[in-house]
Design brief:
The chain has 14 helices and nine strands. With about 300 residues, the protein is of the alpha/beta class. Helix 6 runs antiparallel to helix 9, helix 10 packs antiparallel against helix 11 and helix 13 crosses helix 14.
Length: about 300
């Protein structure tokens, strides 16, 4: 019999992920704080539930894809939360980006009540989510990971199993996002230097594609060079949250992250200028301003809000 799956959190990532589960044939029960976000899923056969608790009591596996720690805790705990509604032996899979201590606490709570908690953050932008090309990094009890593998296959191109401790998956997510923000900072500085010194961005991108032929640098290099920041693949406001989490973890384990500190200042300055709803690649706008250049780069769409 096909398992009953719940999905909570239908944002830019969650909605295409849920669509892929429907396409794979899974009966889906959904909840989102803004109900209108679920309409396309309901039109294709998904069922609506009035609360996270109602989703959980109907499903064997519940997936959450939420904005931050506060949203995950509010959705999981309390009388209307997933934890109380989830039947014994069922699985809560959180695919959000949250602080490792949050998932460590939830894993212990679920373990004590005879239920399973997996942390399974993902790597990939919304277009990768829509194409089922995410990389998924689960951690938690091995038996729960194996139960969820078919779902992961419907949403992603590969699985990197982190191990039995759920919080280490969210640690890996922060490490991975450090790679991304480091690339954004590097590209922003390099392209700004190139422009001020008389090079065209096309020439720099040719060199970039020759030396670093990987999607991370090629994708962000092109978007930064062409000011493709709206609609955002990953919002600057959320990026600032993630960099804050990695800096918090670095302080906790005494591992200095000077590059993250620098990127945090640039992201914060961009937010202060009213750019929080742009892609986090818009960090470059602040680097350009520091160099005396127009923040808008080559294209329209990066608005300055002093």
């Amino acid at each position: 019999m096909t398992i009953q799956v719940g999905f909570i959190g239908l944002g830019n990532m969650g909605l295409p992920m849920a669509h892929n589960l429907l396409r794979a044939g899974y009966p889906l029960c959904v909840y989102n704080r803004t109900a209108a976000r679920a309409q396309s899923l309901l039109a294709q056969g998904a069922r609506w539930a009035p609360s996270p608790h109602a989703v959980a009591e109907r499903c064997e596996i519940v997936i959450t894809m939420l904005a931050d720690d506060a949203a995950l805790q509010a959705t999981t705990l309390g009388e209307h939360g997933i934890h109380i509604g989830l039947p014994p032996g069922a699985v809560h899979v959180d695919m959000s980006t949250v602080y490792p201590a949050t998932s460590q606490h939830l894993a212990q709570l679920y373990r004590e009540s005879g239920k399973y908690f997996l942390a399974a953050p993902v790597f990939g932008r919304p277009e990768a989510a829509a194409a089922a090309k995410l990389w998924i990094c689960p951690a938690g009890p091995a038996e729960a990971i194996e139960r969820c593998r078919p779902l992961f296959a419907a949403m992603g191109q590969g699985v990197i199993v982190v191990g039995p401790e759920a919080h280490l998956a969210h640690t890996l997510k922060l490490v991975g996002n450090f790679f991304v923000i480091s690339a954004i900072e590097t590209l922003s500085e390099a392209l700004t230097l190139a422009e001020k010194a008389g090079l065209t961005s096309d020439t720099v991108l040719q060199l970039l594609n020759a030396l670093l032929p990987v999607p991370l640098f090629q994708g962000y290099g092109t978007r930064i060079a062409q000011s493709e920041f709206s609609p955002p693949g990953f919002g600057l406001r959320l990026g600032l949250k993630d960099v804050g989490l990695m800096r918090k973890l670095a302080d906790e384990v005494a591992a200095p992250l000077p590059l993250a500190d620098l990127a945090h200042r640039h992201l914060l300055a961009a937010l202060a200028r009213g750019r929080g709803d742009l892609d986090w690649g818009a960090l470059v706008t602040v680097v350009r301003e520091l160099a005396g250049l127009d923040p808008r780069l080559a294209r329209e769409g990066v608005q300055d809000h002093p």
